Amino acid sequence: MIEKIIIGELGTNCYILYNDEYNECILIDPANDYDAIIDKCNAIGKIPKYILLTHGHFDHVGACGKLKENNGAKIYISEKDADTDTQRSIAGSLGFDFDCFVPDGYVSDGDVLTLIGFEIKVIATPGHSQGSVCYIIESEKTIFAGDTIMYLSYGRYDFIGGNYSEIKDSIINKLFTLDGDYRLLSGHGRETSLSFERKYNMILL
């Protein structure tokens, strides 16, 4: 029910969430490769209906404009990261082009979204960006973590809206305090687990 494709200029993990009861799917962080995303959706026979963004950096949102225009996908992001201009999206500072888009709705800490049969909880995890969030699916024991936490690492905090104290607090006092273990699917790199990162993540150093 979860497919991963690695796309875009910085090798972003874009996730496709779906189940057999619906012909639609949810995209998490569709990077700038519209064709690759649509090809994968077509291969699994699903229509991109919703887009959940963990934050507003260009390497996680690059295909949003085309997905909304061409496929009618609805885009959700934290309001704190919704002003995805060239500078705030960090596209300009890294020398990349970027197509701005208009979100269809905002997500906030504690929200629970019910989409195509999934209950998805939103947890605010600022630090990598001001509006970074993680999406938790309890039924699957899975967290879509964006760039807040990654295998043995965590996201940069030297961009606009970034803050080391905030990302450390988000990881240690929000994610690590969740009960039990979770599959941890990050914005870059390999899959990991919350129990592993509780022991070995470099944020603890």
Question: What structural keywords apply?
Answer:
205 residues, six-stranded mixed beta sheet, alpha/beta, 22% helix
Give a quick precis of the structure.
The protein is α/β, with parallel strands linked by helices and 205 residues long.
How many strands in all? Answer: 14
* First and last CA, distance: 35 Å
Class inferred from helices and paired strands: alpha/beta
Low-confidence stretches: none
Question: What is the CA-atom radius of gyration, in angstroms?
Answer: 16 Å
Overall mean pLDDT score?
Answer: 93
SSE pattern, N- to C-terminal: EEEHEHHEHEEEEEEEHEEH
User: What about the largest sheet?
Assistant: 6 strands, mixed
For the biggest β-sheet, the strand order reads: 1-2-3-4-5-6
Estimate percent helicity.
10-25%
* Outline type: globular
The total count of helices amounts to 6
Strand content: 25-35%
Q: Describe it for me?
A:
22% of the residues lie in helices and 30% in strands. The protein has 6 helices and 14 strands. The strands form 3 sheets. It has a 6-stranded mixed beta sheet with strand order 1-2-3-4-5-6, with helices on one face. The longest helix is centred in the last third of the chain and has 12 residues, at 164-175. The chain starts with a strand and ends in a 5-residue tail after the last helix.
